[in-house]
Amino acid sequence: MQLFLDTASVTEIRTMWEIGILDGVTTNPTLVAKEGRTFESVLREICDLGVPSVSAEVVATDTEGMLREGRHLRGFHPAIYVKIPMTPAGLRATRILAGEGTRVNMTLVFSANQALLAAKVGATYVSPFIGRLDDQGQDGMELVRDIVTIYRNYRVPTKVLVASVRHPMHVVEGAKVGADIATMPYTVMEKLVQHPLTDLGLARFLKDWEKVPKG
């Protein structure tokens, strides 16, 4: 499974990129707004780090606007994937952009039917938002299972990107059902590394090392 950061913080991205566990980045207008800088300056700095997959979202809601923004974004840097929302206008834009060779991440997916349509119009990634479904009393991971099953049944090349990840078990469950990617906040990726027994074990080793005669 590939691991993406859902952030626009260059500091967070650089930290995980330098550790060597990061495969990509997803951004959205909300995340970029938190940085207090222009969209293109943030995007340029992220891409210049060398991250191979960077999803940048359009803000237009009509097909023509999405096409205009999507074409601009795809020419911005080779790492860019264009994020387009799951709407009728978004489906039309995705079909056209995908036909031109643009890699599209179809976002705000909340049903298996939507995921099936995203694949039919040529989306490279489909992003089911599992945390938001959990918030509404639904089982978000069940949606991921359904999408993975449907795509496998028909050998669909679209990759399943688990989004709205809230905790490490979302990552584990996504990996168990065969999702291709999980994107998460920096705090969740930090927790993937951590375990209290690791900390206790290291502290014990270091304490015992102090007892070893030196010199």
How does this model look, in words?
This protein is an alpha/beta fold and 215 residues long. The protein has a single domain (2-209), classed as Alpha-Beta Barrel (TIM Barrel), CATH 3.20.20.70. It is built from eleven helices and eight strands. The protein has helices at residues 10-19, 29-34, 39-48, 63-74, 88-99, 112-120, 130-135, 140-153, 168-177, 186-193, 196-209; strands at residues 2-6, 24-26, 54-57, 80-85, 104-109, 125-128, 159-162, 181-184. Strand 3 (54-57), helix 4 and strand 4 form a beta-alpha-beta unit. Helix 4 runs parallel beside helix 5 (88-99), helix 6 runs parallel beside helix 8 and helix 8 runs parallel beside helix 9 (168-177). The N and C termini lie far apart (47 Å).
Helices and strands, with pairings:
Elements: E1 2-6, H1 10-19, E2 24-26, H2 29-34, H3 39-48, E3 54-57, H4 63-74, E4 80-85, H5 88-99, E5 104-109, H6 112-120, E6 125-128, H7 130-135, H8 140-153, E7 159-162, H9 168-177, E8 181-184, H10 186-193, H11 196-209
Parallel strand pairs: 1-2, 1-8, 2-3, 3-4, 4-5, 5-6, 6-7, 7-8
Helix pairs in contact: 4-5, 6-8, 8-9
- The averaged pLDDT comes out at 96
**CATH class category:** Alpha Beta
Which range does the strand content fall in?
15-25%
What global shape is seen? globular
* The CATH superfamily title: Aldolase class I
- Structural class comes to alpha/beta
Order of strands, main sheet, comes to 1-2-3-4-5-6-7-8
Tell me the helix content.
40-55%
The CATH architecture category equals Alpha-Beta Barrel
Q: What is the number of domains? A: 1
Number of helices: 11
- Taken in chain order, the helices and strands follow as EHEHHEHEHEHEHHEHEHH
Compute the gyration radius: what is it?
19 Å
Poorly predicted regions are: none
CATH topology grouping: TIM Barrel
Main sheet specs: 8 strands, parallel, barrel
Amino- and carboxy-terminal Cα gap: 47 Å
DSSP E strands, number: 8
